[in-house]
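Hi all, long-time lurker, first post. I run a small reading group and we've been trying to get comfortable going from sequence to structure in the token notation. Rather than ask abstract questions, I figured I'd post a concrete chain and ask someone more experienced to write out its structure so we can walk through it together at our next meeting. Sequence below, copied exactly:
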Amino acid sequence: MAIGCGVDLNPAVALFRSLGDPTRLAILRRLATGEARVVDLTGELTLAQSTVSKHLACLRDCGLVDFRVEGRQSFYALARPELLDLLRSAEQVLAATGDAVALCPAYGMPAGRPAGRPAGTAAGTPADTPAAVTP
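-- Answer (accepted) --
Happy to help. Here is the structure in token form:
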């Protein structure tokens, strides 16, 4: 998909789709602390082995996760250290907007915020109170 100046957005769309799944984000957050085996991830995230393997395959296909084999075990790690910067930046945006980035079913209006209310505020919540977000 090209927009205006001929920029191909498909790679960005694929990247953000890969980051748009809660399970994949949980895996990435865990791998941000160091490498892990599938068995480690299944135990820590309380997910089925097939679920973890499916999501790791997606993350590998996107080039976000890599692995090394040691004996009969595979150890997964983040392939791109820049990914940590992207995740931190996303968390800063979420904190600055009071987590109001998620869209409600009425498309275009952030969830939990009545029309006309400034971004980053909810009923009874000051705009300058950041959400607690940790990497």
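A couple of things your group might point at:
The helical segments are 10-19, 22-31, 38-45, 49-61, 82-96.
The two ends are 31 Å apart (CA to CA).
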